[in-house]
Design brief:
By secondary structure, the chain is α+β, with helices and mostly antiparallel strands. Helix content is 29%, strand content 27%. The strands form four sheets. Strands 5, 6, 7, 10, 11, 12, 13 and 15 form an eight-stranded mixed β-sheet that branches. The chain has a seven-stranded mixed β-sheet with strand order 14-21-16-20-17-18-19, sandwiched between helices. Strand 18 and strand 19 (444-445) form a beta hairpin.
Length: 500
């Protein structure tokens, strides 16, 4: 929700009880109970003053500032910018057009949403990668404020025009032709925002040269780009790190990533929007399997609300600017090391999305262990993470383990014997490292210390451990994790008023 939407009064009436939600600019939520209204009539209004999670005037909430980096180490040869267009008329000042460019051609790959209503940028970016066989990619352009989804032929033309506008700014790629001499774009396109509306394409295209001319490599430039892709996010999500590879320990490589998302998050391929950039030399043909492996264990293992976006895209670009021998196999020592690095980094980046879940007060990891297969473990974890009853119980600080067990029991498409009730255990693992609280042990309920359970649930972070006991055969040792947040009143407030 755009900050300018604050100040709107929402009135909800249930029976004789009227609640007035006043969205103020204070950035705080206060419940005002009027003794006078209680003493006079049940039909008198009880006013709740609530606010959206979105930052006021671009400010990051104090509780989220620790997730915003103050410095970074970014890959060689990549430049970034964040520019104001005003895609949404209500946005008068904040950057909403991000541009990331490599000074040399890159290997590229992406994974996309499996939603059948795929947005125009998804179609266009997929075509760019297919036509170029994942080679000679130069840039990614992203707008926020409008998803350019379900916009027909015109939407496809708009997305294509955005890519070509960047190509025109790249003197070396504007005239590049491959595969039969046809002009090919070298730019991937992403959009995020409201579905079903056309882009103000003229405003965007006229701003692309400015976005290109302000490209730079400083931390502030990367952070500006990360801010430009935000919608209801309360903070920009940006990470960077350095790493080495076995074949060249003397070379320091860099990996940077940014993502956006706070709602409509239960990916079935990647995330809402995300980009990874590295100066390591990675062959195009192994980028897709590298990314897929990482995504299955990170962006495809997070959930805020169970919805899969029309625009979900996660892309990776590798320009090799740091030097060294090209990595051509994921089975090589370099390939195996790189797989672990990219997977761990993707997990850290994707978890920032959960940290910023719309209205969220909890960050929860559900870990399913001793499963007959990774697929079964992930399905069980996903089912728990999607459960509205589990999520609302966590918000209410209620150790209602029955809801967790119920979700385990209805998890679908499991292999026979994956879940055996009398072998299943459920445990709360506190984030502070104190002793775990067992709720269910091999199908038998424990006498739960409700006071201690409540104290554990007072904390922001929690792990739910589900032990399947090896399944029917008792030999399963696979595990999977999912990261999710709770459901609060504020989630309903944000999404009930998203377009206004």
């Amino acid at each position: 929700m755009e900050p300018s939407a604050r100040g709107l009064n929402l009135k909800l009436r249930i029976g004789n009880l009227s609640s007035c939600f006043n969205l103020t600019k204070l950035g705080t939520a206060r419940l005002l109970n009027s003794k006078e209204s209680q003493s006079t009539s049940a039909s008198k209004s009880v006013c709740q003053i609530r606010t959206y999670s979105a930052p006021v005037a671009g400010a990051v909430p104090a509780s989220k500032q620790k997730y915003v980096p103050t410095s970074g180490t970014y890959p060689k040869g990549f430049l970034a910018s964040g520019t104001h267009v005003g895609v949404k008329p209500t946005n008068a000042q904040f950057p909403d057009l991000a541009l990331l460019v490599s000074v040399v051609p890159c290997s590229g790959a992406a994974v996309f949403t499996k939603n059948k209503f795929q947005a125009a940028p998804v179609t266009v970016s997929r075509q760019v990668l297919e036509q170029r066989s994942g080679e000679d990619i130069r840039a990614i352009i992203i707008n926020s404020g409008c998803a350019n989804a379900v916009t027909g032929k015109g939407g496809l033309e708009d997305a294509s025009a955005m890519g070509h506008a960047v190509d025109d700014c790249l003197s070396s790629s504007a005239s590049t032709t491959r595969k039969g001499g046809s002009d090919l774009s070298s730019t991937l396109v992403m959009s995020t925002g409201v579905i079903g509306q056309r882009l103000p394409i003229s405003k965007i295209l006229s701003t692309v040269p400015t976005a290109y001319s302000t490209l730079a490599s400083a931390h502030t430039d990367w952070l500006s780009a990360a801010r430009a892709i935000c919608t209801t996010d309360t903070f920009p999500k940006l990470l960077s790190r350095t790493f080495t590879l076995p074949s060249a320990p003397q070379i320091s490589y860099s990996l940077a990533g940014m993502t956006k998302g706070a709602g409509m998050i239960h990916p079935n391929m990647a995330t809402l929007l995300g980009m990874l950039f590295t100066d390591a030399p990675i062959a195009a043909r192994i980028l897709k399997p590298l990314l897929t492996h990482a995504v299955d264990r990170s962006f495809n293992a997070i959930s805020v609300d169970g919805d899969t976006s029309t625009n979900d895209t996660l892309a990776i670009l590798a320009n090799g600017a740091a030097g060294g021998n090209a990595i051509t196999s994921l089975d090589s020592p370099d390939g195996q090391a790189l797989t672990g690095i990219v997977t761990e980094f993707s997990q850290q980046l994707s978890q920032l999305v959960v940290r910023d879940g719309e209205g969220a007060t909890k960050f929860v990891r559900v870990r399913v262990v001793n499963s007959p297969s990774f697929a079964d473990a992930k399905k069980v974890a996903s089912t728990i993470a999607r459960s509205p009853l589990v999520k609302t119980a966590l918000y209410g600080k209620d150790a209602n383990w029955g809801r967790i067990l119920c979700a385990v029991g209805y998890a679908g498409d499991l292999n026979p014997g994956a879940v055996v009730p009398e072998k299943t255990s459920v445990t709360f693992v506190p984030a502070d490292g104190s002793e775990a609280l067992q709720l269910l042990v091999k199908g038998e309920p424990e006498v739960v210390d409700e006071k201690r359970a409540g104290k554990i649930l007072e904390e922001e972070d929690l792990e739910i451990l589900v032990d399947l006991g090896g399944g029917d055969g008792g030999e399963g040792r696979e595990e999977a994790s999912y990261w999710f947040c709770d459901f609060s009143h504020e989630y309903v407030t944000i999404n009930g008023d998203y377009r206004t």
